[in-house]
Amino acid sequence: MQLDRPRGQMSDSFLMSAFIILSGGLQDAYTYCCRDKVFANAQTGNIVLMSTHLFAGDRADVFRYFVPVISFMAGIFVAECVHRRYKCMEKVHWRQLIILAEIVLLFFVGFLPQEVNTFANALVSFVCAMQVQTFRKVRGHAYASTMCIGNMRSGTEALCAYFHTHDREVLKKALTYFGVIGIFAVGAGLGSVLTARFAEKGIWVSCLLLAVSFLMMFVREEEKK
Fold first, then answer.
1. Looking at the predicted structure, is the pLDDT value of residue 166 above 80?
2. Residue 180's closest CA among 13, 42, 45?
3. Contact between residue 194 and residue 202 where contact means Cβ atoms under 8 Å apart
4. What digits encode the pLDDT tens for the residues 71-121?
5. Across the chain, where does the E strand assignment appear?
6. Do the Cβ atoms of 26 and 209 come closer than 8 Å?
7. Model-level pTM?
8. Are residues 123 and 159 in contact, defined by beta-carbon separation less than 8 angstroms?
9. Which residue, among 13, 32, 40, 21, has the nearest Cα to 183 in the 3D structure?
């Protein structure tokens, strides 16, 4: 798949999005494999597990899955506040402020011991929410950088449309979504390998991926002719 540089916002490019998506997959695998099998991104899964433990009377486990859900909501709220407050900044894009916050928080998470996994999961879920709220388009198409179900639906819908219309742009759209899913899967696999080898500090690779995205956003986008 061509990692294009679009005419428009750099954050819309597939190349920059690839690093964001890898980071999202890594974060989800990190919390599941290293932090008590809690999802950082898949809040549907956390709600299912929370409800299961609630009806089983396991109050401690209810809290374990409830915290990331609330933290995810808080992350969306904060990201939107940053957008509204700093969207007119010129020297630094408001999305770069979000990435910087993500890097700082994830770097801090790498120092947290297993005894405070609930707090660590809260921070990672908060970061994931800021990310999914901030980076919402790739190649002009709405997508989610930290989860797959919406991308799967959109990609399959576009593929069905291509078989009926034979429009190459529609096929490109479908391949973009499937590419996003594939990159997320690679990030998740990478996260499992890193946590197995480096334990809590494996999350620092996510910081490196986000740092690449941060630097790429300094590249001046081409203006539409």
1. yes
2. 13
3. yes
4. 999 999 999 999 888 887 777 788 889 999 999 999 999 999 999 999 999
5. 137-138, 141-142
6. yes
7. 0.85
8. no
9. 21
